[in-house]
Amino acid sequence: MRTLIFIFSFLLLVTQTVTAQSEPRLYAEANPLEAAIGEPIKVSFILEHGKNNGRFTPPDWEAAGFRLLGSSQSSSISIMNGERSASAVYNYTITPVEAGNLTIPSVSMNNEGIELNTGPIAIKVLPNADGISPTLPKRSPAQPQRAPKRKYKTIKM
Fold this sequence. Notes:
Helix content is 14%, strand content 42%. It contains 2 helices and 9 strands, in the order H-E-E-E-H-E-E-E-E-E-E. Strand 7 (108-111) and strand 8 (114-117) form a beta hairpin. The longest helix is centred in the N-terminal third of the chain and has 18 residues, at 2-19.
């Protein structure tokens, strides 16, 4: 009887350990933290142990003094030894349009009823050494450049 109670207690402990997950977390990273006007900066917003529901809203880049050059998103799910972990990464490539101390504002996201927040990131923007602002792309990443139409030739045998 003692053995049966021991086995039942052990199984109960193991199932609770396997089903326990870490709390969801949202944080931001930027690289580099010091750049000249027109140089690209990679900003990543990382969601760990949360559900990627696709409702992430990035900050207003223009209001913060940046121009958006491009964006991408990736997600991963891993189950190892019965433990599930998931993450989503929202990457943005931005460039500063003015010199000075700029701030990437904090971002918030509701994830399964839990409000997650990032902290603001300070970016030091230096003027260009030659004093000339580089030309920035005129197209918006929301309107990607279209590939030329390809012509296909059908060969009958």
